[in-house]
Amino acid sequence: MSSSSKGVCNEAYVLDAAALFASLPLRLHDTCYTTPLVATEVIDRESRKSLEYALVSGKLVVTEPPRESIEEVKKAAENIGELSNLSGADISVLALAHSLLSMCSKVVVITDDKSVQNVALHLGAQVHGIKRRAIRKPRKATYICPACGYKSNKAGTCPICGHKLHKKLKN
Q: What CA dihedral angle connects 164, 169, 170 and 171, to 10 degrees?
């Protein structure tokens, strides 16, 4: 996918696996996009059938995001403390959305995953939930030790006392 001026597409929907399980590509009017990593997560028979119908009808495009977009997403996610909460498929969805932002007037990431929603908002995309309401504003995550109060911008364990750090979002 090459970068060009906005307006090549009016609106793009980028879907994670939950959106595919809900057969959203068959219900939306505009073209939907996802990545090969996400498509391989769809393994149950009914969802697989819906995925195949969406592909055959041209309502869903499965494409690999550019490497540069993957790196940009990882940087952005790390800056807001969300990188450790993202799977490879999540990063691929966000990278695809990032690359489409340069070509489309509006990019909507459809997912119930709050970490994916948060990073998408930071990147400039809009978000919609499937079964749960989407977050409205991007937030920065910080991780706090419940025992000693140590703070970090990365998930993990406290280097002081060894307790698991708890995620806290701030505006």
A: 160
DSSP assignment of 23-53, as one string? TGGGT-SS-EEE-HHHHTT--SHHHHHHHHH
Which residue, 77, 93, 58, 65, is CA-closest to 3? Answer: 65
Residue 9 tokens, joined: 């597409």
Q: Is the pTM of this model over 0.70?
A: yes
> DSSP strand E in 54-112: where?
60-62, 104-110
Distance (Å, rounded) from C-alpha 142 to C-alpha 170?
A: 8
Q: Note the pLDDT of residue 3.
A: 44
- Looking at residue 153, the DSSP 8-state letter turns out to be S
CB atoms within 10 A of CB 120: 30
Instruction: List the beta bridge partners of residue 152.
Output: 143
Question: Are the beta carbons of 112 and 135 closer than 8 angstroms?
Answer: no
**How confident is the model over 126-158, as pLDDT tens digits?**
999 999 888 888 888 788 999 999 998 888 899
Residue type, 86: L
Q: Two tokens at 11?
A: 């609106």
